[in-house]
Amino acid sequence: MERSKKINKEISEKRLADVLVSHIRKSNPVKREYRHYEKYIDLIGLVIDSNELMSVEVKVKNWQKAFQQAVVNLAVAEKSYVAIYSEYIHRVDLDRLRACGIGLISVGSVWGAVQFIEPAKSSQLVNTITNKRIKEKLCTSGA
Amino acid sequence: MDINLRFGMQRDKEIIRDLADKIDGLVIPAHILAYQEASTSVFVASFKNMPYIIDPMTFLLQHSRENLVNDSGELRISIGKMCDEYHSSLSGLLSNLPAGGSLRPGSIPDQQELCKNIYKTQTESVAEKSTTKKAEKYIKRYGRGALTLPRFVVAPYFRFDSTNDPWYGLSLELANIMKNICESKAESLESGVILYLSADNLNDATINRIASDYASFRHIVVWLDNFDEASVITDNIVKSRQLIKQLAGFSDVEVLYGGYLLMTTTIEGLSAISHGILYSLHKSFVITPGGGGVPERYYIPKFKAFRSLSQTDLILHRHTELICDCVICQDVMRGDPDRIVLFADEPEKLRQHFIAVRRNEADQIETTKRDTIVDELRDTYSIYHKSISHLPNPDAYKSGSNMHGLEYLNRWADGIEHNIS
Fold first, then answer.
1. How close does chain A come to B383, measured CA to CA in Å?
2. Model confidence over B336-368: pLDDT tens digits?
3. Chain A: residue whose CA lies nearest to B319
4. Residues of A in contact with B314 (CB under 8 A)
5. What is the rounded CA–CA span in Å between residue A48 and residue B125?
6. ipTM > 0.90 (yes/no)
7. Model confidence, pTM
8. A80 reaches B (C-beta below 8 A)
9. Among B298, B388, B326, B299, which residue's Cα sits nearest to residue A37?
10. CB-based burial of residue B378 (10 Å sphere; 0-12 exposed, 13-18 middle, 19+ buried)?
11. A71, B392: Cβ pair inside 8 Å?
């Protein structure tokens, strides 16, 4: 039991992103590692129902770093999320995320283990040119 | 106040050409002139009366072997070529340094010969190298202008910690030799010096000694090592002002590498500032490995500082009044913060914007009173600091979700309003 838990905690960021993408891609076009100015957004998707972009910064446990990047993403997507490995989700300071309107997703190591913990609020800082460009790319590439 | 642009990369040349009407002169690093000899010399010669100086870059000789060689352990080509112009034994001396070793003041060869060759490099190489066969293709690109001599000849110089540092003594000796050479030549060029020191090491005695030792020099360029204006402490601002004020009492004083803060020392008598385009507002003796391309940044005039484009995007959406009204920004931004993304499509406009703003700052600061500068800095801090310090800024991370904001503006204000003798 101890051993299996230890192995679980050594999960990679890539694996978490794989699990998350496979979940979101079921109904929405998604791109990984999307270039935004000097940084890359881990994951960006178009929520077809609302025609809104959702960005996600994925980290195994360093939620503060993911949070900072997620704040930058407020200029890109209507909904900005942080995704953290389910084993470390309890470490996240939800109040801090809420204060900025950032949402939280818990991701496990197995396919389908995705849980939206806190919904993101609509960003008031979206750059409409960037946002429109990304939406067009996601639609045309059929990602 | 004059603005001299220092170029480092090949692409800088095209940008400087476009901005020529906004700047007052050029600073050409000698190792770049030695390495890209044809393109650099034709470029310099192509302007009609663009004043320039050649930085002899001799402080590179103080670096340890690891910073001077390439991956295969050979002396970097640019440094090797420069050394070969300066003295026949220099390349060999550097190549034979042991691991971790560096030259000592006593191992700098034949000072007279060194100065003669550096004089020759600075007064003849642009003319010689701009007329070679290799230069022809660059003449087609840049055109042929009116060849001029440098504003003054810069003596070899080294970084020193104190006036007791042997490198200080050697720099002074070389400066005097170069002065004598200049006075003996028909070109009648004046000599100048670069004082390369850290503001951390300044005190009254050091400032007095430097002023006394260099009292006969009419051109003094001050390079404050790693003078990062975003983090400099008030005490160092005060000491830097004292140094510049004292030197300006008898000499034309310029600053090598500097931003708005050092520009404010025009009140103390500073006449010019040099820096690169979007980079080199401060420079350290310590070489940081790695690097790569310079990230694109936007100069926010009100903050007197650069911010990453991603942060600027957020800042301008939160504070639309910060959208710049320079000619470039009027065209690109049209008052709409969303249009900041268009700078990422045309990054050369970031440079045009910065130089347009810098020109404006340089012109305005000459007639702005000390109190006005201080009030503006404090006002900007009080209006924007709280908001900015909660926006992500990878360059200014403090803790948690807190970033360094505009604290530096208050430190500047403290340093500028402090009375100096």
1. 19
2. 999 999 999 999 899 999 999 999 999 999 999
3. A125
4. 71-72, 74-75, 125
5. 65
6. no
7. 0.90
8. no
9. B298
10. middle
11. yes
Q: Which domains does chain B have, with CATH numbers?
A: 2-275 (3.20.20), 297-417 (no CATH)
Length in residues, chain B: 421
Task: Return the amino acid letter for B245.
Answer: K
Long-range contacts from B380-389, C-beta under 8 angstroms, 24+ separation? B380/B302, B380/B303, B380/B406, B380/B409, B381/B406, B381/B407, B381/B409, B381/B410, B381/B413, B384/B302, B384/B303, B384/B319, B384/B322, B385/B409, B387/B318, B387/B319, B388/B303, B388/B315
* Close Cβ partners of B130 (under 8 Å, ≥ 6 residues apart): B38, B41, B42, B44, B45, B138, B139, B147
Q: How far is B341 from chain A (nearest CA, A)?
A: 7
Average per-residue pLDDT for chain B: 91
Tell me the residue length of chain A. Answer: 143
Calculate how close chain B gets to A39, using CA atoms only, in Å.
8
Asked whether the beta carbons of residue A37 and residue B337 sit closer than 8 angstroms, the reply is no
Q: Which helix (H) or strand (E) holds B25?
A: strand B25-29
B404–A contact, CB cutoff 8 A = no
- Chain B's closest residue to A96, CA to CA, is B401
Q: At what angle do helices B10-19 and B37-46 cross, to 10 degrees?
A: 0
Which tokens belong to B125?
């190489």
| CA pair distance A8, B218, nearest whole angstrom | 70
**Which chain B positions have a beta carbon within 8 Å of A39's beta carbon?**
310
Give the Cα separation of B238 and B257 in Å (integer).
18
Task: Please indicate if any CB of chain B lies within 8 Å of the CB of A127.
Answer: yes
Q: Decide if B46 contacts B16 (C-beta within 8 A).
A: no
Residue type, B376: E
Angstrom distance (rounded) from CA B246 to CA B253: 10
Query: pLDDT at position B19, please?
Result: 87
Two tokens at B188?
């009648």
CA distance B195 to B165: 13
Q: Where are the domains of chain A?
A: 2-141
Q: What residues have CB less than 8 Å from B75, skipping those under 6 apart?
A: B68, B69, B83, B91, B94, B95
Lowest mean pLDDT among A91-105, B51-65, B306-320, B381-395: B381-395
Q: What are phi and psi of A111, to 5 degrees?
A: -55, 135
Please report, for residues B72, B77, B131, B234, the alpha-carbon distance to residue B81 in angstroms, rounded to integers and kept in the order given: 17, 6, 19, 41
Q: In which region does residue A125 sit, left (phi positive, over 0), alpha (psi from -120 to 50) or beta (all else)?
A: alpha
CB distance from B278 to chain A under 8 Å?
Answer: no
Residue owning tokens 């704040």: A71
Q: What are the tokens at B34?
A: 């030695």
Cβ-Cβ contacts under 8 Å, A96 against chain B: 400-401
Q: What is the pLDDT of residues A71-95, one digit of tens each?
A: 999 999 999 999 999 999 999 999 9
Reported CATH class of domain A2-141: alpha beta
